[in-house]
Description:
This protein is an alpha+beta fold. The protein has 4 helices and 10 strands.
Amino acid sequence: xxxxxxxxxxxxxxxxxxxxxxxxxxxxxxxxxxxxxxxxxxxxxxxxxxxxxxxxxxxxxxxxxxxxxxxxxxxxxxxxxxxxxxxxxxxxxxxxxxxxxxxxxxxxxxxxxxxxxxxxxxxxxxxxxxxxxxxxxxxxxxxxxxxxxxxxxxxxxxxxxxxxxxxxxxxxxxxxxxxxxxxxxxxxxx
Length: 190
């Protein structure tokens, strides 16, 4: 019975500037010839004193299917994009959005929170980042809203193009906390 072939490439890093990529083992039926092919690539890696790293499309698919776990600093404030739009004006254009911020695991009332808003695709890959300070953060287990917040659009930046062209339902926002100043004067850094 014929098994599905996965694209396999071995990348050998001779140094940080040069990479040698071997794709000799593509589309070989999973049998002895395929194993011999990979043995040759591994031998070539050993010859130049490097360690091969293997990537398969199956492994990449499994990795993307896995839910990425949020770090402690990403669990404190949850973010939800309510509205996103691209606006052009006479001399500039921008991307603006309304966002709901909920203090999911904030320990105690905060005076200010400094962090980074990460905009991710459906696979959890960060496509754009914005420095973001909450001067009036939500109380623990409550929500606050930011309206018409955004940035100037630069047509030469791929992350700006992604933000402009991607529907709000095909992206998610994650607020990664860097530092919290609590109302009692204490501070916690991440």
